[in-house]
Automatic annotation (TrEMBL):
Protein name: Methylmalonyl-CoA mutase
The Methylmalonyl-CoA mutase alpha/beta chain catalytic domain, residue ranges: 39-114, 126-445
Native organism: Bacillus badius
Similarity remark: Belongs to the methylmalonyl-CoA mutase family.
Cofactor(s) needed by this chain: adenosylcob(III)alamin
Pfam families on file: MM_CoA_mutase
Top-rank taxon, per record: Bacteria
Record key words, sorted: Cobalamin, Cobalt, Isomerase
SUPFAM superfamilies noted in UniProt: Cobalamin (vitamin B12)-binding domain, Cobalamin (vitamin B12)-dependent enzymes
PANTHER family per UniProt: METHYLMALONYL-COA MUTASE, LARGE SUBUNIT, METHYLMALONYL-COA MUTASE, MITOCHONDRIAL-RELATED
């Protein structure tokens, strides 16, 4: 075939029905609906999307209308995203050294952990290149202190965002805001607005909600609800809605559901533009600062190098969704202080996305996808409905006081945890493919804050007290407020980490009694080995047992206190319940489980023979592991 013939070739036209037939054929008789999956947002994902799934009002160009495809027509080619990884340091000199190295190696923004930098003195703070790079700092408890340093130093120009989300930060600790706190915050932000008009100081941080289990549309709706609170509050302080919008920075955590997280940022811009329209906010003020960090919710101490894959995927989805700045967590940050390798990998992930994947040279690569456009539209609709429901219930503060938000988040967190426990969702290295030989992260002690001062001190008094040796911690403001139900967070891997720690402490081991040939027992033995490993139990397999006597001999030689019997159903019929009764006669204290599930009548016979339990697909792995570890711990205590 010559080149002209190749050019003339055309693919035959294929309809959606043709695709469906091909898919059903590969499913061997199952309907296409078998491939539909549900999400925590209660959205049903289809295996195939086409033109009919795309909204008729989908935006064709970035920089227009609802800004679904981005605030700028040129995307990252017009305004590149900032690599703003958080620098973790033990003291001022360490911070400056690490920051200098990071900026030299490709980072282009200043960000550091405020609580760990609490001992940073005014002199050390002033030595940072604040005017040369944008700042992206979550000030947490130290907003007033950092603001005092900035106002005392008076650099010519500051850009970026420095702030504390008083709502989500306090809610995480079970506190609500006082009038005194709000007044001091408003005074501080007003002074910063005068001194540094390009610095954003109103932080809306949805990370605490994300870490408490929130789904994508809840994160969007809570960000909108907080924005309404800040707009209405600062209007009373004399700010215009446009001035407020210009100084807002919205910060998201990116979860592990790649396309959902990309759609989350796109849907937020849609909802945000609609909110701005309601307040009469127009022009550049609508182009709110949006930042993202990779999720701590999805990190694990177990098989920590898998965290590199998680953060890489999460960073990728953030860039596709459109961010002003990106913060990637080191894979080993759960150790307390990341290693130099962990910090280097975190810094390089955005550089790879920008310089090797060339994502900085593509304008909205997600645009036009039937799937992503459909997902974005659905998320936007759900988020707006949830946002209006929060407003009808009195707004975000009222819903936190009543516990409405906490209740919703707790239900979702329980659902996510349950799905991991029964392996409906997988977390590599944690509930599946657990490696008991890995070197575990060693936690280092956390930084301890210096005593806090009274919140009644005013900003100008703080500034006047600053000397070269004054530290952030010495200007720390004590939190005060009425108590509420805390927005409780928990990393997904934590229950498994606790199991593994206990199993390691007691030296938990299990035996697998393999019935028949390798071909007959391997499938169930592999499954049980994986299940037990996720709970921290190391296993020892027997040779293929052809008789009851061989199984009894394995129990005698191995000397363990727990065993699981594995084989085909035919092997169970061959050996029968007498296998259990014989083992129990010679080793009455041994605990015996069976892999798989038998009919009720047979199950009763095995139990009557002395069988203690079962291991099967869909079982709650955490509950089973707790049961076994408690047994093994009790046996160990009596030895």
């Amino acid at each position: 075939m010559d080149i002209q013939e190749m050019k003339a070739q055309r693919f035959p036209k294929v309809t959606e029905q043709d695709w469906e037939k091909a898919a059903e054929a590969s499913l061997k008789g199952k309907p296409l609906a078998a491939l539909y999956t549900g999400t925590y947002e209660e959205i049903t994902l289809k295996p195939l999307y086409g033109p009919a799934d795309r909204s008729p009002n989908v935006e064709q160009y970035p920089g227009l209308s609802l800004y679904t495809r981005g605030f700028y027509s040129g995307g990252y080619m017009e305004v590149p995203w900032k690599n703003a990884n958080v620098i973790r340091a033990e003291n001022g000199a360490d911070l400056k050294g690490k920051l200098t190295a990071a900026l030299h190696a490709g980072q282009d923004a200043i960000a550091f952990e405020a609580e760990e930098a609490a001992a940073l003195s005014f002199a050390e703070f002033s030595s940072l290149p604040l005017e040369e790079h944008p700042l992206y700092i979550d000030a947490k408890d130290h907003f007033l202190a950092i603001a005092s340093f900035l106002l005392k130093q008076k650099p010519d120009k500051l850009t970026g965002a420095v702030g504390t989300d008083l709502i989500s930060f306090y809610a995480k600790q079970g506190l609500v805001l006082t009038e005194q706190t709000l007044a001091l915050q408003a005074e501080t932000m007003t002074e910063l607005k005068k001194a540094f008009p390009e610095l954003k100081t109103i932080r809306i941080d949805t990370v605490p909600y994300h870490e408490a289990g929130a789904n994508a549309f809840q994160e969007i709706s809570l960000a909108l609800a907080e924005a309404v609170f800040y707009i209405e509050w600062l209007k009373e302080e004399g700010w215009s809605p446009e001035e407020i919008a210009e100084r807002i920075c919205v910060h998201f955590a990116m979860g592990s559901q790649f396309f959902m997280e990309t759609a989350k940022l796109r849907a937020f811009r849609q909802c945000w533009a609609t909110l701005c329209e309601a307040y009469g906010i127009t022009g550049s003020a609508v182009k709110v600062s949006i930042g993202a960090e990779t999720s701590s919710f999805t990190l694990s101490k177990l098989d920590s190098h898998v965290n590199i894959l998680r953060t890489g995927s999460e960073a990728f989805s953030a860039v596709l969704g459109g961010v002003e700045y990106l913060q990637v967590r080191p894979f080993d940050e759960l150790s307390g202080m990341p290693s130099s390798l962990g910090q280097r990998v975190a810094k390089n992930i955005p550089l790879i996305l920008k310089s090797e994947a060339h994502l900085g040279k593509v304008t909205d690569p997600a645009g036009g996808s039937y799937y992503l456009e459909s997902l974005t539209a659905e998320l936007s609709r759900l988020a707006w409905e949830h946002f209006t429901a929060l407003e009808e219930a009195g707004g975000v503060m009222s819903c936190l006081r009543s516990g409405k938000i906490q209740k919703e988040l707790a239900a979702l967190l329980e659902k996510r945890s349950s799905d991991l426990a029964v392996r409906k969702k997988s977390m590599v290295g944690t509930n599946i493919y657990a490696d008991l030989t890995e070197q575990k992260l060693i936690e280092k002690p956390a930084f301890s804050l210096l005593p806090a001062e009274n919140e009644a001190d005013v900003l100008q008094d703080r500034i006047s007290k600053i000397s070269e040796t004054a530290t952030i911690a010495e200007l720390h403001v004590k939190k005060s407020g009425d108590g509420i139900i805390p927005v409780k967070s928990q990393r997904l891997a934590e229950p498994f980490e606790r199991l593994r720690e206990k199993a390691e402490r007691i030296g938990a081991k299990a035996g697998i009694i393999c019935l028949g040939t390798l071909k007959e027992f391997k499938q169930r033995a592999d499954f049980v080995t994986g299940m037990l490993a996720a709970g921290g139990l190391a296993v020892q397999w027997s040779e293929g047992c052809k008789t009851v006597e061989e199984a009894v001999e394995f129990v005698k030689e191995s000397g363990l206190s727990y065993y699981c019997i594995c084989g085909r159903d035919e092997s169970y019929n061959q050996f029968g319940p007498q296998l259990v009764s014989t083992i129990k006669q010679s080793h009455p204290s041994v605990r015996l489980d069976l892999a798989g599930r038998l009919p009720e009548e047979e199950k009763t016979q095995w139990q009557q023979a002395g069988l203690d339990g079962w291991i099967y697909s869909g079982q709650n792995l955490i509950e089973k592991a707790i049961e076994l570890l408690d047994h093994l711990e009790g046996v160990s205590a009596h030895e």
